What we know:
The structure is a homodimer. By secondary structure, the first copy, chain A, is of the alpha/beta class. Chain A has two domains: about 5-120 and about 300-310, 2-Layer Sandwich (Nucleotidyltransferase, domain 5), CATH 3.30.420; about 125-295, Nucleotidyltransferase, domain 5. Helices cover about 35% and strands about 20% of the residues of chain A.
Amino acid sequence: MDYCFGIDIGGTTVKIGLFSEVGEMVMRWEVPTRKGNDPSGLLKDVKDALENCMSEKKIAKENILGIGMTAPGPVTADGVLHNAVNIGWGAVCLAEEAEQIIGISPVCIGNDARVAALGEAAFGAGKDAKSMLMVTLGTGVGGGVVLNGHILMGESGVAGEIGHMTIDPYETETCGCGKKGCLEQYASATGMVRAAERFLKKTETESVLRQLEKVTAKDLWDAAKAGDRLANEITDFVCDRLGSAIANAVYLVDPEMIVIGGGVSAAGEFLLDKVAKAYQAKVFAHSRNKKFALAKLGNDAGIMGAAALILSKTE
Amino acid sequence: MDYCFGIDIGGTTVKIGLFSEVGEMVMRWEVPTRKGNDPSGLLKDVKDALENCMSEKKIAKENILGIGMTAPGPVTADGVLHNAVNIGWGAVCLAEEAEQIIGISPVCIGNDARVAALGEAAFGAGKDAKSMLMVTLGTGVGGGVVLNGHILMGESGVAGEIGHMTIDPYETETCGCGKKGCLEQYASATGMVRAAERFLKKTETESVLRQLEKVTAKDLWDAAKAGDRLANEITDFVCDRLGSAIANAVYLVDPEMIVIGGGVSAAGEFLLDKVAKAYQAKVFAHSRNKKFALAKLGNDAGIMGAAALILSKTE
């Protein structure tokens, strides 16, 4: 039996999974993230963790097919990871360094959002689809495009960054990225709160939201589900922007299905329905019938996608 | 030596090319498009044309690697061509019918805009790029995405239809597709004329365009090149919309280069420069450095892309 490791490098912990060659998770654990000017310290910790695991499970090095690893920043086509600011690294050839320090080849890396999308495609909501668009609604809006089991990484590392699509050319406020009118300004948790504040200010409509000192995205969706009229207007507006961005994505990559993940997707089928309806209003008739689904893997999407980086290469 | 045929089905003529296995065009000719309720008549004409060619060139059937063919409408992933309204067909399995009638296999088909993009990627402006976005500025706005030598066709046949990306959620006029705010409403030849008319109406600015009874896209670009201030404001507006759509496409597929084709691209480097600058204002720093180029193949992009449908399969 052959195995691979899937490694998800986060700001606080490094999640590690041992997977069988058919993609079953055999073991899953975490080590603290060692920060530094370069990845060498963190990679030494990973090396120790993997060697302990292999000795415990009596797995020989030649039975490890490779290591998949998420990279906490954009990765350009030359394999360089840029701006891993959360961890403190500069530009770094993460896969090469990892191969040298850990002593296992190949190490395949990919931007964390893209790898999480691959995880959903390989093992989660998109398991039976040939192609998939993932949209992650969290503090920001992330995403990924998976075609025939392979994640689209892009030349400059931004393939799948649907959150920074320009959706409104007349927006006056500036997005975290420096541009104006990005999807993220409307469909991230923060963007939804901003939309709620705007609607609350510009209308007089009664709403349970007016009783709250500070509205959160969860409050907004809870109120909408409970039938609050203004909350439904606000979520309709947000979903219109999101549906438009998803339609734009379909006009480029036309995947079989769309998977919605991230913290805000906890609003569940109610949110999914609104997004799907908004999408359908924006596309040609024969493109309306896309499957929409909620992400399934939660926090394990990263290590599972990392494993898929290796396993999809050995098909 | 092996060969393939590339066939481009247009509303008036069917263009046919004979290509060597390394992609050289050996012969190129046209036959009139026979219209009908189904493709059988047209395919019989094609069969005769190909057989004449093979007998003239003394090429045996076993030396034909296959036939690539453009389809004049959207092709869904199940191989069905829909809405070939120009020619009169209903939904049809074009590749299967062609294989049966012509007696050569395989026949590979793809939507005409997508196949033309593949032509530019394989033999034209994108020859040295690994991945490419093509944008065709003509009566409408078309496009295609080529990744690693393969054209993205999409599940519902709309991959690459950048012209129907929603760019302006506040647009009040309706696009030919029935939606509002599509890129095509600003960046097609018709869209540019519409923009010119709007600017001429809402401003008093002096302009050579005011002396014309009816402004065309060519007039607009000629005036802009000659330094006309209003014409430059209008083309800047159009390019801002186009740059925004290309940036949105980069945030999804992040190709190595962008190729601009179609009748309006006759405005040349002047147009290309404006589009590239508008694009650069809409993306992250490390995605700014994309190659922009004008399409090279003109009317032969279809037959050449059709040949690439076969030759890229036999790599």
